[in-house]
Specification:
alpha/beta; TIM Barrel; binds 2-phosphoglycolic acid
Protein backbone atom coordinates (compact mmCIF):
# COMPACT_ATOMS: atom_id res chain seq x y z
CA UNK A 1 0.00 0.00 0.00
CA UNK A 2 2.63 2.51 1.11
CA UNK A 3 4.88 1.84 -1.87
CA UNK A 4 2.42 3.26 -4.43
CA UNK A 5 2.68 7.02 -4.82
CA UNK A 6 -0.51 8.78 -3.83
CA UNK A 7 -1.46 11.72 -6.03
CA UNK A 8 -4.52 13.67 -4.93
CA UNK A 9 -6.24 16.35 -6.98
CA UNK A 10 -8.06 19.02 -4.99
CA UNK A 11 -10.47 20.67 -7.41
CA UNK A 12 -11.66 23.24 -4.84
CA UNK A 13 -14.76 25.06 -6.18
CA UNK A 14 -13.95 24.28 -9.83
CA UNK A 15 -15.03 23.71 -12.58
CA UNK A 16 -18.19 25.75 -13.08
CA UNK A 17 -20.29 23.02 -14.73
CA UNK A 18 -20.89 19.29 -14.52
CA UNK A 19 -20.08 18.94 -18.23
CA UNK A 20 -16.60 20.34 -17.68
CA UNK A 21 -16.16 18.19 -14.59
CA UNK A 22 -17.04 15.05 -16.55
CA UNK A 23 -14.71 16.01 -19.35
CA UNK A 24 -11.75 16.65 -17.03
CA UNK A 25 -12.39 13.58 -14.91
CA UNK A 26 -12.69 11.15 -17.83
CA UNK A 27 -9.51 12.54 -19.42
CA UNK A 28 -7.58 12.20 -16.17
CA UNK A 29 -8.97 8.75 -15.54
CA UNK A 30 -7.91 7.49 -18.93
CA UNK A 31 -4.23 8.24 -18.28
CA UNK A 32 -4.27 7.39 -14.58
CA UNK A 33 -5.91 3.99 -14.86
CA UNK A 34 -2.94 2.46 -16.69
CA UNK A 35 -0.40 3.48 -14.03
CA UNK A 36 0.70 0.62 -11.78
CA UNK A 37 2.71 2.59 -9.24
CA UNK A 38 0.29 5.42 -8.60
CA UNK A 39 -2.98 5.71 -6.73
CA UNK A 40 -4.92 8.73 -8.00
CA UNK A 41 -7.73 10.37 -6.04
CA UNK A 42 -9.71 13.32 -7.37
CA UNK A 43 -11.61 15.46 -4.89
CA UNK A 44 -14.27 17.42 -6.82
CA UNK A 45 -16.97 19.63 -5.30
CA UNK A 46 -19.56 17.55 -3.41
CA UNK A 47 -22.27 18.23 -5.93
CA UNK A 48 -20.42 16.39 -8.72
CA UNK A 49 -19.59 13.26 -6.74
CA UNK A 50 -22.67 11.18 -7.56
CA UNK A 51 -22.28 11.83 -11.28
CA UNK A 52 -18.51 11.27 -11.49
CA UNK A 53 -18.78 8.09 -9.47
CA UNK A 54 -20.42 6.44 -12.46
CA UNK A 55 -17.10 6.64 -14.32
CA UNK A 56 -15.15 4.74 -11.65
CA UNK A 57 -14.22 1.26 -12.77
CA UNK A 58 -11.02 -0.08 -11.16
CA UNK A 59 -9.05 0.72 -8.03
CA UNK A 60 -6.34 2.93 -9.46
CA UNK A 61 -8.49 6.06 -9.69
CA UNK A 62 -10.84 7.01 -6.89
CA UNK A 63 -12.89 9.94 -5.64
CA UNK A 64 -12.61 11.85 -2.41
CA UNK A 65 -14.30 14.92 -0.95
CA UNK A 66 -12.92 18.22 0.33
CA UNK A 67 -14.63 18.48 3.70
CA UNK A 68 -17.01 16.79 6.12
CA UNK A 69 -19.06 17.69 9.16
CA UNK A 70 -18.51 15.82 12.43
CA UNK A 71 -22.00 14.54 13.22
CA UNK A 72 -23.59 11.77 11.15
CA UNK A 73 -26.97 13.51 10.89
CA UNK A 74 -28.74 16.49 12.34
CA UNK A 75 -29.92 20.05 11.83
CA UNK A 76 -26.76 21.37 10.14
CA UNK A 77 -27.94 23.21 7.06
CA UNK A 78 -25.52 22.96 4.17
CA UNK A 79 -23.22 20.40 5.76
CA UNK A 80 -22.48 16.84 4.63
CA UNK A 81 -21.75 14.06 7.11
CA UNK A 82 -19.12 11.31 7.17
CA UNK A 83 -21.86 8.65 7.13
CA UNK A 84 -23.38 10.23 4.01
CA UNK A 85 -19.99 10.33 2.30
CA UNK A 86 -19.21 6.74 3.07
CA UNK A 87 -22.71 5.61 2.05
CA UNK A 88 -21.84 6.76 -1.49
CA UNK A 89 -18.79 4.50 -1.51
CA UNK A 90 -16.38 7.45 -1.25
CA UNK A 91 -13.31 6.49 0.73
CA UNK A 92 -11.35 9.66 1.50
CA UNK A 93 -11.88 13.16 2.78
CA UNK A 94 -9.63 16.21 2.97
CA UNK A 95 -9.81 17.77 6.44
CA UNK A 96 -8.35 21.04 7.70
CA UNK A 97 -7.41 22.56 4.35
CA UNK A 98 -6.03 26.07 4.95
CA UNK A 99 -8.87 27.57 2.90
CA UNK A 100 -11.37 26.02 5.33
CA UNK A 101 -9.32 27.04 8.33
CA UNK A 102 -9.38 30.60 6.93
CA UNK A 103 -13.20 30.37 6.98
CA UNK A 104 -13.13 29.70 10.72
CA UNK A 105 -12.34 26.01 11.14
CA UNK A 106 -10.39 25.60 14.37
CA UNK A 107 -7.92 22.88 15.39
CA UNK A 108 -10.63 21.50 17.68
CA UNK A 109 -13.12 21.24 14.81
CA UNK A 110 -10.46 19.56 12.70
CA UNK A 111 -9.95 17.05 15.50
CA UNK A 112 -13.69 16.31 15.72
CA UNK A 113 -13.90 15.89 11.95
CA UNK A 114 -10.91 13.54 11.89
CA UNK A 115 -12.45 11.33 14.60
CA UNK A 116 -15.87 11.29 12.94
CA UNK A 117 -14.44 10.50 9.51
CA UNK A 118 -12.39 7.58 10.87
CA UNK A 119 -15.44 6.24 12.67
CA UNK A 120 -17.31 6.24 9.36
CA UNK A 121 -14.44 4.26 7.79
CA UNK A 122 -13.04 7.12 5.70
CA UNK A 123 -9.36 7.76 5.05
CA UNK A 124 -8.36 11.24 6.22
CA UNK A 125 -6.14 13.61 4.27
CA UNK A 126 -5.21 16.00 7.06
CA UNK A 127 -3.78 19.33 5.88
CA UNK A 128 -1.29 21.22 8.02
CA UNK A 129 1.02 24.13 7.29
CA UNK A 130 2.24 27.53 8.34
CA UNK A 131 1.19 30.87 6.91
CA UNK A 132 4.74 32.22 6.99
CA UNK A 133 8.22 31.18 7.96
CA UNK A 134 10.34 32.77 10.66
CA UNK A 135 14.03 32.42 11.45
CA UNK A 136 13.42 30.97 14.89
CA UNK A 137 11.52 27.94 13.67
CA UNK A 138 8.19 28.84 15.31
CA UNK A 139 6.48 27.45 12.20
CA UNK A 140 7.73 23.98 13.09
CA UNK A 141 6.12 24.24 16.52
CA UNK A 142 2.91 25.42 14.86
CA UNK A 143 2.78 22.38 12.56
CA UNK A 144 3.66 20.00 15.40
CA UNK A 145 0.81 21.48 17.39
CA UNK A 146 -1.69 21.25 14.53
CA UNK A 147 -0.92 17.54 14.20
CA UNK A 148 -1.09 16.81 17.93
CA UNK A 149 -4.52 18.42 18.24
CA UNK A 150 -5.91 16.89 15.03
CA UNK A 151 -4.85 13.39 16.07
CA UNK A 152 -6.03 13.55 19.68
CA UNK A 153 -7.79 10.26 20.38
CA UNK A 154 -6.70 8.71 17.08
CA UNK A 155 -5.49 5.21 17.87
CA UNK A 156 -2.60 3.24 16.36
CA UNK A 157 -4.93 0.97 14.46
CA UNK A 158 -6.32 3.93 12.52
CA UNK A 159 -2.93 5.21 11.33
CA UNK A 160 -3.01 3.45 7.93
CA UNK A 161 -6.06 5.64 7.25
CA UNK A 162 -4.23 8.87 8.05
CA UNK A 163 -2.47 10.85 5.35
CA UNK A 164 -0.84 14.13 6.35
CA UNK A 165 -0.46 16.77 3.64
CA UNK A 166 2.08 19.47 4.35
CA UNK A 167 0.77 22.58 2.63
CA UNK A 168 2.65 25.79 3.44
CA UNK A 169 -0.01 28.48 2.99
CA UNK A 170 2.51 30.87 1.41
CA UNK A 171 3.07 28.36 -1.41
CA UNK A 172 -0.59 27.65 -2.25
CA UNK A 173 -2.70 29.01 -5.08
CA UNK A 174 -2.51 31.73 -7.74
CA UNK A 175 -1.01 34.32 -5.42
CA UNK A 176 1.76 32.09 -4.14
CA UNK A 177 5.16 33.66 -4.47
CA UNK A 178 6.64 30.26 -5.32
CA UNK A 179 6.32 26.58 -4.53
CA UNK A 180 8.24 25.53 -1.48
CA UNK A 181 11.56 23.93 -2.33
CA UNK A 182 12.09 20.20 -2.01
CA UNK A 183 14.31 21.04 0.99
CA UNK A 184 11.52 23.06 2.64
CA UNK A 185 9.21 20.07 2.19
CA UNK A 186 11.89 17.66 3.44
CA UNK A 187 12.43 19.65 6.61
CA UNK A 188 8.73 19.47 7.42
CA UNK A 189 8.28 15.84 6.42
CA UNK A 190 11.06 14.99 8.90
CA UNK A 191 9.31 17.09 11.54
CA UNK A 192 6.00 15.31 10.86
CA UNK A 193 7.72 11.93 11.26
CA UNK A 194 9.23 13.07 14.56
CA UNK A 195 5.87 14.24 15.85
CA UNK A 196 4.23 10.97 14.82
CA UNK A 197 7.02 8.92 16.39
CA UNK A 198 6.63 10.78 19.64
CA UNK A 199 2.88 10.05 19.53
CA UNK A 200 2.85 6.48 18.17
CA UNK A 201 6.39 5.04 18.39
CA UNK A 202 7.10 2.56 15.60
CA UNK A 203 3.54 2.58 14.23
CA UNK A 204 4.18 6.14 13.03
CA UNK A 205 5.48 4.64 9.81
CA UNK A 206 1.93 3.74 8.78
CA UNK A 207 1.03 7.38 8.14
CA UNK A 208 1.60 8.64 4.62
CA UNK A 209 2.96 12.14 4.06
CA UNK A 210 2.23 14.38 1.07
CA UNK A 211 3.42 17.77 -0.10
CA UNK A 212 1.01 20.33 -1.60
CA UNK A 213 1.37 23.92 -2.83
CA UNK A 214 2.01 25.00 -6.45
CA UNK A 215 2.92 21.49 -7.59
CA UNK A 216 3.19 21.29 -11.38
CA UNK A 217 4.52 19.05 -14.13
CA UNK A 218 8.00 20.50 -13.73
CA UNK A 219 8.57 20.28 -9.99
CA UNK A 220 6.58 17.14 -9.08
CA UNK A 221 9.47 14.76 -9.53
CA UNK A 222 11.83 16.90 -7.47
CA UNK A 223 9.44 16.75 -4.50
CA UNK A 224 8.77 13.04 -4.93
CA UNK A 225 12.47 12.18 -5.04
CA UNK A 226 13.93 14.55 -2.48
CA UNK A 227 11.39 15.27 0.26
CA UNK A 228 10.79 11.84 1.81
CA UNK A 229 7.12 11.96 0.92
CA UNK A 230 4.61 9.40 -0.30
CA UNK A 231 2.81 11.62 -2.77
CA UNK A 232 1.38 15.03 -3.65
CA UNK A 233 -1.74 17.11 -3.08
CA UNK A 234 -2.31 19.13 -6.22
CA UNK A 235 -4.67 22.10 -6.62
CA UNK A 236 -4.68 24.15 -9.86
CA UNK A 237 -2.65 21.68 -11.88
CA UNK A 238 -5.18 18.92 -11.17
CA UNK A 239 -7.76 20.82 -13.21
CA UNK A 240 -5.61 20.65 -16.29
CA UNK A 241 -5.69 17.02 -17.48
CA UNK A 242 -2.53 17.46 -19.57
CA UNK A 243 -0.44 18.91 -16.74
CA UNK A 244 -1.94 16.53 -14.20
CA UNK A 245 -1.03 13.58 -16.42
CA UNK A 246 2.57 14.81 -16.46
CA UNK A 247 2.56 14.82 -12.67
CA UNK A 248 1.11 11.31 -12.60
CA UNK A 249 3.74 10.09 -15.04
CA UNK A 250 6.57 11.53 -12.94
CA UNK A 251 5.16 9.61 -9.98
CA UNK A 252 4.85 6.42 -12.01
CA UNK A 253 8.48 6.53 -13.08
CA UNK A 254 10.03 6.98 -9.65
CA UNK A 255 11.86 3.98 -8.37
P1 LIG B 1 -2.24 24.70 -5.58
O1 LIG B 1 -3.21 24.29 -4.38
O2 LIG B 1 -1.63 23.42 -6.10
O3 LIG B 1 -3.12 25.36 -6.56
O4 LIG B 1 -1.19 25.62 -5.01
C1 LIG B 1 -2.89 23.25 -3.49
C2 LIG B 1 -3.98 23.07 -2.45
O5 LIG B 1 -4.55 24.08 -2.01
O6 LIG B 1 -4.31 21.94 -2.05
Amino acid sequence: MKSKKLIIGNWKMYPASIEEARDKFTKIKKGASVLRNVQTIICPPFIYIGDLKKFITGRRVGLGVQNTWYENEGAYTGEVSPAQISSLGISSVIIGHSERRALGETDEMVNKKVSAALKAGLAVILCVGESERDRDGHYLKHIDNQIRIALRAVSRKDLPKIIIAYEPIWAIGKNALRAASAEDALEVSILIKKTLTSLYKKNADNVRILYGGSVNGKNAQEFLCNSQIDGLLVGRASLNPIVFSEILKSAENIK
